Structure formats: C-alpha cells, structure tokens
Amino acid sequence: MKDYITIIGGGLAGCEAAYQIAKQKIKVKIYEMKPKNYSPAHSNQNLAEIVCSNSFKSNLRTNACGLLKEELRQLDSLLIRIADETSVPAGQALAVDREEFAKRVTEQIEQNPYIEIIHEEITNIKAMLQEGIVIVATGPLTSDALAKHIQALTGQDKMYFYDAAAPIIEKESIDFKIAFYGDRYSQEKKKEETIEQWKERLEKQEKEEQSYINLPMNQEEYEDFWKELVEAEVVTLHEFEKREIFEGCMPIEIMAKRGRDTLRFGPLKPVGFDDPRTARRPYAVVQLRQDNKQASLYNMVGFQTNLKYGEQKRIFRKIPGLEQAEFVKYGVMHRNTYINSSQLLAETYQVKEIPNLYFAGQITGVEGYVESISSGLVASLNAIQKLKGEEKKKIFSENTMIGALAKYISTPNDKFQPMNANFGILPELEGKKIRDKKERYQKLAQRSLENLKTE
Description:
5-stranded parallel sheet, alpha/beta, 6-stranded antiparallel sheet, 14 helices, 33% helix
C-alpha cells in the first residue's frame, strides 16, 4: 500500500480531510480539476469555493448547526477556524468573506509540506484503489463521467442526480389537538360502529401505528392554503438545473396550478379518513410519514417543492396542526449527485465492500457546508487508522451531532435522502420529557459536548 492518501476533490470536505491527514505527518495527494475544468456552478480558482450562501448558519449552541460547529472547533477543524477568522457581521450567524475564506484555505493547503495538489480531472479510481486509500469528496456536482464510474464501482442501480425532497418536521412541534395517527382506511368509521366504539378503536390503533400522522382540512382551510400555494415565490433554477419536470416528482405548487381540486385528488386526497373531531370525512388531508427510527421526524408526503424556504415556512404553517411547525429540512428540487450511503457506507464513511474507499462531503448525503466539513474530518481520521493498519475505527457517539450525522447516512433506509444537522437525529434525553424547546436543545447540546470530551 502507498504511504499516502489520495483525495479526489478540493472542496470543503476534501480540504478538511487533507489537513487532518497532514497533521499526522502523512502525505496527501489532492486531485482537483479546477482551473482546467469547472462544474457549472464554480468559477473561482481557489480551493474550498463557496457557491451559494456565505452563511455557515447560527453560532448558537441551541442551534443544531451551531452545536456542530462547536464540536468541530474542539476537534481542531481547519475550515471552521478559517471561517471564524474571515467572518463578517451577521448577527448570531457565522458568515464569511467568501473570497478571503477560499484564499486562506488554499494558502494553508498549498503551504503544507505533506500535501500535494494535482490539477487534473479524475474519471476512474480503480488503479488508485489498487495502490492505496482513496477519499472521494467531489461534492453534489460530481462530473457525469466520475458519477457513472462510481455507480459501476459500487454496484448501485442508480445515483441521485436531482434532489427532489419534501420538507421534514419535528414531531414535537405538531399540534395533536388537530393531528391524528393512522394509515388510510383504518381511520374511517365503520357502519356498525358507534361513535364511542370508533374513537376507542382509534385510540388503540394510535398506540400501535404511528408511522403516519394526518392533518385534516375543511374547505375554507384548504382553499386558503391552495390560493397561497399557487401565488408563492419559487427558487430560480440555474441554467444547468432547468429541465423537464417529470410527473413522478412534480413540485406541489405546479400540481396546484393545474386546478383548485388537483391536490384533493392527489397527495391531499381525504379518501379513507374520518376526522376524529367531527366523525366525518375531511375536505382534504395532509399526511406526514415517519422519517427516522426514533419517530422524532416526519416528512410531508407528496410535498416536493421548489418554493423559497421562507415561503415554505409561511405557507405550510397554514396547514391545521402545523401552525408552530419546526422544519429541520425544507423541500428542495435541484441538481445534487449523491450515493445511497445508507446501503453503502459505514459510520466511518468507509465503503463497506471496498475497505480502501471512503466518501466525504455532500456526495454522501450530508447537506450543508458545516456538515460536509464534519464528514471530511471523520473520513480522514478513519483513513489514517486504515493506513496505519489499526483495527480500531474512529466512531463518534451518536449523542454528538458529528456522530449522529454519520449514523444517519449509514443507517439502512429505503427512503434515504440528504440531511443536514438537526436535533431530531439525536437520541432523546433520558428521563422526563422537556417540553420547552430551548431548554431541551440546551440539554442536548450539553450532553453532546460532554460526550465529545470522552472521545
């Protein structure tokens, strides 16, 4: 095996991984295709280019991304340190001067005697894997040629070239004075049942069946929601993202524009439900489906959307029962190449069937700048262990945000989709439930940082 580790991609995850490896006085070769070739979204010659927002989100520990940043600071993350040093005023958020940030990261990587940067596009990594350890950190805009090669190498039927995902909501924020559990048709009142027998059956079913949460709407509520939806502001796609919208992942706002009742015959159809408050079929029903093992997160069934995030929050909170909804992930429809990590990867970001191969960054299904940095750090620490021939792996506690993300992307899930840092992926606190959200998040953050000290 070669005495160095190869990294494909010089973005946030790749640069963090390179730094962590070089810190151990191990040689690194980074292959970065810029400036010879650029993805459709990149234009800066520097490494660690930030394409979209310059915000790394909140610095508060009671914010999931803020907690993740604090964990990374304690683990000596190069990129978070440079983000702090190049920050610009943004209230409680960490926002950076993007040009200065990328410049400083590039200087740190270029000046490191253990790191060699090779400006070359890689489309095949088989030979590299035969000789040593490879970390693929090519991001959500991985070139088509490399994406096809990875698909063939990992034996997956497909990679995901467009992210069409519905919003995900914290269960704790749903109003169960309105919402009720249950699958379609099991909630209808049977002809021979009395109201009391029906409600008793519903209560029993709710204890047994919690994979779906239902939000009933009357005609006035539905029509108000529909009107707001068809008039809402949408995200303008990049030229390379514009494409024919297939029926299978049609944005809900486009579906709504086809007619006032289109949603009622589609994802919001009320057939099979009676509202426990009225014992009558509602005018429309929004369904939420369990999204994680702990049943702390639920996604909005059929709500793939291209609405702006602020519009999603405003309009989807008009749905009865979601007035105080906390969105851990908004709906998206954009170019986003990622592997099915839930089937392929271990918590170390190592490919289970190809021990010399690791993935890092948004190609793994972690979503966001800070999340990408965390995956680069974890992948590099485990690649170091592998190079040294040590059997022990670096797996962070699932009580930490960095560990919970690694566990999320590596847990088998038929509905796997990208995820950012959020408190819903952390295990619940032991003991009595804490209803106050801020207090609960403070306790979770405290537990996380205490766990990190023992790593």
